[in-house]
Design brief:
With about 325 residues, this protein is of the alpha+beta class. It has two domains: about 140 residues, no CATH class; about 140 residues, no CATH class. About 25% of the residues lie in helices and about 45% in strands. The strands form five sheets. Strands 2, 3, 7, 8, 11, 12 and 13 form a seven-stranded mixed β-sheet that branches. Strands 1-4-5-6 form a four-stranded antiparallel β-sheet, sandwiched between helices.
């Protein structure tokens, strides 16, 4: 009898330990919820991303399907999800899908070997991008007849993170050039009487201004704008075609990444105006910074980026 009671106690103890272990495990692993579904907006974003990705870099890796699997229900689950995303065998891609030669597909472990700050950078971004309550979507990919899955995080009905989709960009490498000449304000005006423009008296000594802008726009893989960068050079001219002053402006913006812009005037007046610019944007695996010693924007880390360092010379019409 005593032996039977001992066996019952042992059995109860084992069951209790197993139940505790299961409960503890459920706290750090997002529970699959088959009834969970993505919104129509997110579904459309995935479909557009799939079309854009496969039509441009499908020979490297193809996006096959996507499925919502559950939500992050605690900080412990958030940490567990971060560890899955940063696992050595987790796949990641970076580059510009409109420039196939720039695209790379590697494991996070390989990226960490190439740059020791990769996981540290990823953790910083993931801490910001992942939140309790976020939806988790599994995206199925295929590369060279092998399949793998990436974890996509959906926050506030928007794609917040995916090792492939948000680490890559869609960007035309050629700039959009915008030319804005002023009206011929006073080229034919009577020098004595002058002309009136915008309520100000302008004499024939002042002729016009001429502005030219170089800009680049980067989009999310699902099509909406993600960031941009550019610079504008403006020359102000006398009626004889001489430049009497040169202005410049610059900008760079990037969602989920880094951006930097600088510009300065090199030639202010004379037969032309000339400026220098340094522009850059990058996705999370990389970063951009300005080097004042060589007056250039430079890229650090490994990831998708576009940098343009150059000069802009503008002559009168």
């Amino acid at each position: 009898m005593q032996k039977i009671k001992h066996l019952v106690i042992v059995a109860i103890t084992l069951c209790t330990l197993m139940l505790f272990a299961c409960q503890k495990e459920s706290k750090v692993t997002p529970v699959e919820q088959p009834t969970t579904a993505v919104s129509s907006k997110i579904s459309n974003d995935f479909e557009v991303a799939k079309q854009n990705w496969n039509s441009n870099v499908g020979s490297l890796v193809r996006m096959q399907s996507f499925k919502a699997v559950g939500t992050i229900k605690s900080n412990a689950e958030k940490e567990a999800m971060m560890n899955q995303i940063m696992a050595d065998d987790a796949m990641a891609a970076y580059g510009n899908i409109l420039d196939e030669s720039s695209m790379n597909l590697k494991t996070v472990g390989e990226l960490q070997q190439e740059n020791s700050t990769t996981k540290e950078t990823m953790r910083t971004y993931l801490q910001q991008q992942l939140n309790v309550g976020d939806l988790v979507v599994d995206v199925l990919w295929e590369s060279k007849s092998k399949s793998f899955t990436s974890k996509t995080i959906i926050h506030d009905d928007a794609i917040a993170w995916d090792n492939l989709l948000t680490s890559s960009i869609m960007m035309d490498t050629k700039p959009v050039i915008t030319v804005t000449p002023s009206e011929e304000i006073a080229a034919k005006a009577d020098p004595a009487a002058g002309s009136r423009v915008g309520g100000s008296a302008i004499t024939a000594a002042y002729a016009a201004w001429y502005r030219q802008t170089y800009s680049w726009v980067g989009n999310w893989i699902w099509g909406s704008k993600r960031g941009d960068m550019g610079e504008t050079t403006t020359i102000h001219c006398y009626s004889n075609g001489r430049v009497y002053s040169t202005d410049r402006s610059d900008w760079a913006n990037m969602a989920l990444g880094s951006a930097r812009s600088e510009s300065k005037v090199l030639v202010n007046s004379g037969s032309y105006g000339k400026t220098q610019y340094a522009l850059g944007i990058a996705t999370p695996f990389a970063s951009v910074s300005f080097n004042n010693s060589n007056w250039k924007v430079e890229v650090g880390g490994i990831g998708s980026s576009m940098v343009r360092n150059g000069t802009h010379t503008l002559y009168p019409w």
